[in-house]
Specification:
The protein has 139 residues and is mainly beta. It has 1 helix and 8 strands, in the order H-E-E-E-E-E-E-E-E. 14% of the residues are buried.
Length: 139
């Protein structure tokens, strides 16, 4: 080896890569979890929607005493990937679907999400007029 030259090894390349990551202020465009925020009756509720291979088993999340929400996220296989939100009014006879919203890839992934997320502010109403507001954003 000649004087003044350094030898590049796989270990030194890996070290440089890790050091570069530590200095990088990179932002990931999104995570794999969607956070939904609900406003109802002066209270705030939250639900997280994570990828699942069995969306039919996703839990119904109660929102106060009149509403419920179910979020599903099928990430793969890509030909059936979908993000679904289902909002319900809970009647004496069981849940009644008020809104079904589906998002298909490529998903909107703003680097800095606005307060109302990628869904925008949604407003739904019980039969007697009580309002549920919600929005969802990538974690």
């Amino acid at each position: 080896m000649r004087a003044g030259r350094t030898r590049t090894t796989p270990r030194s390349l890996l070290g440089a890569f890790v050091a570069g990551l530590a200095l990088c202020h990179c932002e990931r465009p999104h995570a794999d979890v969607v956070d939904c925020t609900f406003l109802y009756g002066g209270d705030t509720y939250h639900a997280a929607v994570a990828p699942s291979s069995d969306p039919y088993r996703s839990a119904l999340v109660p929102i106060g005493d009149e509403f419920a929400f179910r979020g599903t996220y099928v990430k793969s296989p890509t030909d059936v990937a979908v993000l679904g939100f289902y909002a319900y009014y809970v009647s004496d006879n069981g849940p009644v679907l008020l809104e079904q919203t589906r998002y298909y890839p490529p998903y909107a992934h703003p680097i800095r999400a606005a307060q109302s997320g990628f869904t925008g502010m949604r407003a739904l109403y019980a039969p007697h007029g009580h309002e549920l507001q919600y929005w969802c954003q990538w974690r």
